[in-house]
Amino acid sequence: MAFTIAVLAGDYIGPEVMAEALKVLRAVGSKYHHDFAFREAPIGGAAWDECGEHLPKATLDLCETSEAILLGAVGGPVGEQLLPKWRDVGPKALLPLRKKFDLFANLRPAKLYPALASACPLKKGIAEKGFDILVVRELTGGIYFGEPRGRDGSGDEERAFDTMVYSRREIERVAHVAFRAAQARRKKVTSIDKANVLVSSVFWREVVQEVAKDYPDVNLESMFIDNATMQLVRDPAQFDVMLAGNMFGDIISDEAVGITGSLGMGPSASLGEGTFGLYEPSGGSAPDIAGKGIANPIAQILSAAMMLKYSFNLEEESRAIERAVERVLEEGKIRTPDIGGTSSTSQLGDAIVRNI
Q1: If phi over 0 gives left and psi between -120 and 50 gives alpha, with beta otherwise, what is residue 284?
Q2: Which residue of 37, 52, 148, 290 is surrounded by the most CB atoms within 10 Å?
C-alpha cells in the first residue's frame, strides 16, 4: 500500500531524529511491502529563516494534501523569538496547525521500560514497579485559545489577562477518546481538573461524569491537578489513562514523560475526528545538544509507530517498531547518553532497524 506523509523536520535536533524515524519507516515499508512517500517542508525557525514565516502557505498546502504529518521539533533559531511581545506569545506554527486540522485530542504515552528503571528519577522501589500511562490532552480549546486575552491599563492599574473557555462539545469529544482508549487498556480514567476553584473545571468534571455513563466498564476517578502532580511521583503505577484540558494536560504530560527517565522517550499523536493526525516527539528541539549526534531518536521513532497505528491502521507494523525498540533497550548495548549510554543518534536508529 502507498501512504503520503508530510515530513516537517523543524529545528535543531529535529532533522537529526527525523532521519532515524524515516530510516525505520523505510525498513517497515520494505518488510511489509508498503510505499511511504515522504514530502518534506520547513516549519518553525527553519521556515522563518527560509521564508520569513513560521508556517508558510506551501507547508500548509503540503500538509493538506498528505495523509498524516510527521513533525520533528519546533523552537528556533530566530533571535526575535527570545523577546516575544504579548500579542505574539505562543507557538507560531504548532497552534495554527492544530486549529487548522481540528486536532483536538493529544495522546502522549509515558511508559517506564524495565530496562530503563535505573534512569527513572523516582525512588528505586517506585521505579521497580514500573508504569504505563496514556495522557489524553484536549488540544484546541481552553486557556490557550480562549478570548478575550490581552493587556490594558497603565501604572499600578496595568493588567494582563487570558480566558479559560470550554464548550460541552469540546469536553465530550476528548472524553470519549479517553474512555475508548481505557477500554483497550486497564479500564480506568483519571480526569484532572481544579473544580474546587475554577468554574470551567466544575463544568469539565460534570461533563466527563456524564460521558462516563456510556462506558460502564471503565472506572472514572476525578483528581485535582495539584494532587495529580504529586501522585505521579509518589505512585505513577496507579494511573492508566489521564484525561485533562489543554493547560493541565500540557503540565501533566510533560511530568509523566519526564519520570520515564528522558524526554527523548516520549512520543505523541494529535488526532481529529478522522484518520488524519500529527505525530511528534514531546522533548522539544534541544538546542544544547543539536549537531552533536547524541539526541535520542526513540520518541520520534515511536511517534512514527503511532502514525502507522492511528492514521494508516497498520497495527502489526506499528507493533513491530515498538518491539524493536523494546529489544534494543533490553539488550542494553546501544543507548544514547540521556538513557545511560554512549551511542550516537544514528547508531541507536540502526540498532532499531536491525531488530525490525
Answers
A1: left
A2: 290
Share of the chain above pLDDT 90, in %: 83
90 and 131 within one domain: no
CATH number of the domain bearing residue 166: 3.40.718.10
299 and 214 within one domain: no
Strands (E), 256-342: 269-271, 277-279
What is the domain range of residue 242?
Answer: 121-152+159-259
Asked whether residue 275 is assigned to any structural domain, the reply reads no
The set of catalytic residues is 144, 194, 226, 250, 254
Looking at residue 312, what is its pLDDT?
98
Indicate whether 40 and 78 sit together in one domain: yes
Point out the domain boundary residue: 259, 276, 304.
259
- pLDDT (average), residues 252-278: 94
Strand order of the β-sheet with 269-271 is 35-40, 2-10, 68-73, 277-279, 269-271, 105-111, 132-138, 241-244, 188-193, 219-224
CA end-to-end span of the chain, whole Å?
Answer: 19
pLDDT in tens, 109-134: 999 999 999 889 999 999 989 999 99
Residue 205 CB partners (closer than 8 Å, separation 6+):
191, 193, 195, 222
Poorest-confidence range of 27-31, 87-91, 212-216? 87-91
Query: Beta 277-279 vs 68-73: how paired, if at all?
Result: parallel
95 and 125, same domain (yes or no) = no
Tally the domains of the chain: 2
C-beta separation of 3 from 39 below 8 A: no
